[in-house]
């Protein structure tokens, strides 16, 4: 065989003979070669040695942060509206479609940790553009803990499990984290977001994403603007309640990963709009007094609106977790012409870190050749050799200038699509110091707190009280209370109350603007695509009512799952329903609403009672059709907000359900349930 007709490895093992890595067909993979049936294994058994050796080396180091993640393929479609600020083709050309791979993650936990822990979420997007790969490596929180990348090892060492016993896993509720953030008060803004509902998203599909730093965009004429990137989920911004997050961490640690994959599988493709806040690049790197180089600050949307520039749709699950989700390597330095960096000291450190960390994690410098990392445009570099080189380069002159390869490769100027940096004046003394504008650590945290609705504030207070309540060192709690006193006296007093400690007083009240965009509670119902309604039924239930309900909500992309005492099929008259969950396998966290089908025989089965009471406590719409007896048996107040009882499944019933689902939670019910649950 010549090199040209060697078959490409397909990775598909179906309908083919099992072989060794050398392609030798194998008759047996269950028994090692032994000296007699009862004898020792023979060293000459090449199959045994290869199989065990490869297995011994199957694991690679997990990411030093963001180890736990889930990803999907999709497409980004540009609106063309960004043409006025950038020459990057994938953003500027109306209707241009660019393939993407998006990885969501938690930050602190190990690769096997639970999805629903309280943490920041990563939102990393690789755009395979025709001008090369662009990575927008963002988070679901628009600010960061630190202003200078040199502090990154510190904040991560403090947040990771404590080094003596390696506990707690995947959470910030411990002394070292609060020790650090109470001493390093520039972290306060990020901490406020992490303790808010943003720290426990309902799903990846309902998270906002932020580029965090200001980027410099360059248009076709060389004009520049500073921008902040925002991803806005079409499904709305929604969160879990704390008890749900805790239950999910045990009952279904893959909660977010499963949700993403199942939504895509069901055709409820998650979508986001990409938007930019555009600010003047006038040499001051600031906007209305906000330092754009300080990654602990936002620019309120009311001040600079987010302008939509394109749409992201995730429509394909990975086929190999390892090859794709684990081996994908994001890098903030993967930029394309028209997108440049700024002097933000956090961004500057990241430009070094990502490429560096992949060398250890992916075992050498050739990881850009891995299929998931490969650009979709031609690559013609002069990088050679190294571990795991897969390209068979031709030519003999991987250097410039050369004459032996005819002077190739040639260089691209701006007119050929080359990445030509915009000249920018840089001067100053070499100093280890921050500008004075980085000093205000409390005004924006105060703005964040005061922009939340009362229920969101209550959640924030509870989160602080929980996390500090898990700390053992009194001085750490007291110091964090002193920090909160600087943010807001009411917040501080409530947390202090919960901890049983005195609240520091005497801090001036800060006059801060309110930014309604910071609240995620909606008053108008949003879309319900991808939402799940659990319907409890038994053989006596009105199964045709379930069919009607399913038809009504399926049109909107929502799903009905039947829960019954046992698996199999339910049959009643001429109606049938497949049982998707039993009372043993169902848990309330999976559903956005829980109903009981009319006619279902009332029971006090504790699993049913728990299902209904949890859904009630977590402020989900619940309901039934028929006399409602079964809800009463479970102790549900039929007059409580968001409890839907109707004679039959009719238009009014399904409309009320869809409206309640679209509002995400029945917030009016909050005061009826104990605060510790929600
Ligand atoms: Fe990262 N970060 N980061 N980070 N980061 C990594 O790169 C780092 C920061 C973010 O799904 C690492 O490949 C430094 C901000 C995401 O694969 C590492 C600093 C933001 C992901 C690294 C930051 C992020 C990472 C670990 C401070 C939001 C997961 C593994 C200067 C804007 C990407 C890896 C994925 C991953 C370094 C701060 C987002 C070590 C030094 C701010 C979403 O290179």
TrEMBL record:
Keywords: Heme, Hydrogen peroxide, Iron, Metal-binding, Oxidoreductase, Peroxidase. The keyword Transcription does not apply. It comes from the Bacteria. It is an enzyme of class 1 (oxidoreductase). Heme binds at residues 63, 103, 152, 350, 354, 361. It catalyses: 2 H2O2 = O2 + 2 H2O. The keyword Cytoplasm does not apply. Residues 19-408 form the Catalase core domain. Pfam families: Catalase, Catalase-rel, Catalase_C. Its cofactor is heme. Its EC number is 1.11.1.6. The active site is at 66, 139. One of its GO terms (biological process) is hydrogen peroxide catabolic process. GO terms for molecular function: catalase activity; heme binding; metal ion binding. Decomposes hydrogen peroxide into water and oxygen; serves to protect cells from the toxic effects of hydrogen peroxide. This is Catalase.
């Amino acid at each position: 065989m010549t090199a040209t007709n060697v078959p490409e490895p397909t990775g598909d093992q179906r309908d083919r003979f099992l072989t060794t890595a050398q392609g030798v067909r194998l008759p047996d993979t269950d028994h090692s070669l032994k000296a007699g049936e009862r004898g020792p294994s023979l060293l000459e058994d090449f199959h045994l040695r290869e199989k065990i050796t490869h297995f011994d080396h199957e694991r690679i180091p997990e990411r030093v942060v963001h180890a736990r993640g889930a990803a999907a393929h999709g497409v980004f479609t540009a609106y063309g509206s960004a043409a006025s600020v950038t020459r990057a083709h994938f953003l500027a050309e109306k209707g241009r479609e660019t393939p993407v791979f998006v990885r969501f993650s938690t930050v602190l936990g190990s690769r096997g940790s639970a999805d629903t822990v309280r943490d920041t979420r990563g939102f990393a997007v690789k755009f395979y553009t025709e001008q090369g790969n662009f990575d927008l490596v963002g988070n679901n929180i628009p600010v960061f803990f630190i202003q200078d990348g040199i502090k990154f090892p510190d904040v991560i060492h403090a947040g990771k499990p404590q080094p003596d016993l390696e506990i707690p896993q995947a959470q910030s509720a411990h002394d070292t984290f609060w020790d650090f953030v109470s001493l390093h008060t520039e972290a306060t803004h990020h901490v406020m977001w992490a303790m808010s509902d943003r720290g426990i998203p309902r799903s990846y599909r309902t998270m906002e994403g932020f580029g965090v730093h200001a980027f410099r965009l360059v248009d076709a004429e060389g004009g520049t603007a500073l921008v902040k990137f925002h991803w806005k989920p079409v499904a709305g911004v929604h969160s879990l309640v704390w008890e749900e997050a805790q239950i999910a961490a045990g009952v279904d640690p893959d909660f977010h990963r499963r949700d993403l994959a199942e939504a895509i599988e069901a055709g409820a493709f998650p979508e986001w709009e990409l938007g930019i806040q555009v600010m003047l690049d006038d040499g001051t790197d600031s906007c209305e007094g906000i330092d754009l180089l300080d990654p602990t600050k936002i620019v309120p949307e009311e001040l600079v609106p987010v302008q939509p520039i394109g749409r992201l749709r995730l429509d394909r699950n990975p086929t190999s977790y390892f090859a794709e989700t684990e081996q994908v390597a994001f890098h903030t330095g993967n930029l394309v012409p028209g997108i440049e960096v700024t002097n933000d000291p956090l961004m500057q450190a990241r430009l070094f870190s990502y490429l560096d960390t992949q060398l250890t994690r992916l075992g050498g410098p050739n990881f850009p050749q891995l299929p998931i990392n490969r650009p979709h445009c031609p690559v013609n570099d002069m990088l050679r050799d190294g571990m795991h080189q897969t390209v068979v380069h031709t030519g003999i002159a991987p250097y410039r200038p050369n004459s032996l390869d005819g002077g190739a490769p040639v260089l691209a100027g701006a007119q050929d699509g080359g990445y030509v940096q915009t000249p920018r004046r840089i001067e100053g003394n070499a100093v280890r110091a921050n500008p004075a504008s980085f000093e205000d650590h409390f005004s924006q945290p105060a703005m964040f707190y005061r922009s939340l609705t009362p229920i969101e504030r209550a959640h924030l207070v509870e989160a602080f009280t929980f996390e500090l309540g898990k700390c053992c060192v009194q001085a750490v709690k007291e110091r964090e209370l002193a920090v909160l006193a600087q943010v807001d006296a009411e917040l501080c007093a409530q947390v202090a109350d919960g901890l049983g400690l005195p609240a520091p007083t005497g801090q001036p009240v800060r006059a801060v603007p309110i930014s309604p965009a910071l609240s995620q509670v909606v008053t108008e119902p949003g879309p319900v695509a991808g939402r799940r309604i659990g319907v409890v039924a038994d053989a006596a239930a009105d199964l045709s009512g379930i069919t009607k309900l399913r038809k009504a909500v399926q049109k909107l992309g929502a799903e009905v799952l039947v829960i019954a005492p046992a698996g199999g099929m339910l049959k009643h008259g001429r109606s049938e329903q497949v049982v998707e969950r039993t009372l043993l396998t169902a848990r309330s966290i999976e559903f956005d609403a829980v109903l009981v089908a009319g006619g279902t025989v009332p029971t006090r089965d504790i699993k049913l009672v728990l299902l209904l009471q949890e859904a009630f406590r977590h402020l989900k719409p619940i309901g039934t059709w028929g006399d409602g007896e079964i809800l009463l048996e479970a102790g549900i107040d039929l007059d409580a907000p968001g409890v839907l009882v109707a004679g039959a499944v009719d238009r009014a019933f399904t409309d009320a359900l869809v409206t309640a689902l679209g509002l995400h939670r029945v917030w009016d019910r909050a005061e009826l349930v104990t605060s510790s649950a929600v």
